[in-house]
Structures are given as C-alpha cells and as structure tokens.
Amino acid sequence: MLFLGVDGGQTKTVAAIATERGEVIGVGVAGPANHVHQRGGEARMRRAILAQAGRELALAAATVVKKLGLEKREVIVGLVGGVFKSGEPLLGPFRRELMRRAPGAQIRWPVLPPVLAAVLLAMREAGLRPTPRTVATLRATMPAL
After folding, report:
1. Class of domain 2-141 (CATH, top level)
2. For a 10 Å CB count at each end of the chain, is N or C smaller?
3. Is residue 81 scored above 90 in pLDDT?
4. Is residue 101 a contact partner of residue 67, using CB atoms and an 8 Å limit?
C-alpha cells in the first residue's frame, strides 16, 4: 500500500507519496491553495476561488500519483493545511477532481501538520504503526523544496 500526504499552503501545494517503509518515492508541487476571503461578502466570488483551489489541490495530489503510474492503485490520501478547513466549497471540488484523476484514492483526515506528518497519519489510518526508523527514512528521503 502507498500513502499520499497533501499540504495545501498559502504559497504552494506539496504532495508526497511514500511506501509502507517510509520511503518517499514521489513529490508533486503546484500553485497555492489560497483561500482568500473577499471583502464585501461576495459569497459567489469566494465559492469560485475555493472551488478552483480544491481542483488545484487535487491536481497536485494526482500529479504525483500519475508520475508513478498509480492511478488505479489504492492510495491513502492524508490532508493537512489550513486550506482544508474551508469546508465543502473546497472539499467537494477536491474530492471530485481527485476521484476523476486517481480513482483508487481514499481520503483520510490527519491530525499532524506538515506533509510528512500527513504521510505518517495515512499509514496509521491503514493500521500500520510507523517506527522511529520509518520516520527517519521519511525525513531522509524527502527532497528539499
């Protein structure tokens, strides 16, 4: 089984995919998941921005899956970053786009912040117990961004 973490940030979106051993085997970077709230209560504008951000987040995740030819494989996707607190206006488009591009993806909600923490949570959600060695391997194999 493989584990995908997504960090939807204000300046960029990062996705990393790792093996059960904790080896990062692919990374995808995309644009910001900017969830700017517009002045003046322009709800329609906010919804459009959030929907586009959701699609871009899914594209970042799907990019790393596609790079490795894993579109049909089961991949546990852990989500981190404040952008995911934006709710259904962002999450609906995210889910739809991710399922369209990576039908084997299964979304799990992590409780730890950065992208590697998202990978660790995805592992735990799948019933694995990452060891300190797994954590060390994740850190050692994650490329600098």
Report:
1. alpha beta
2. C
3. no
4. no
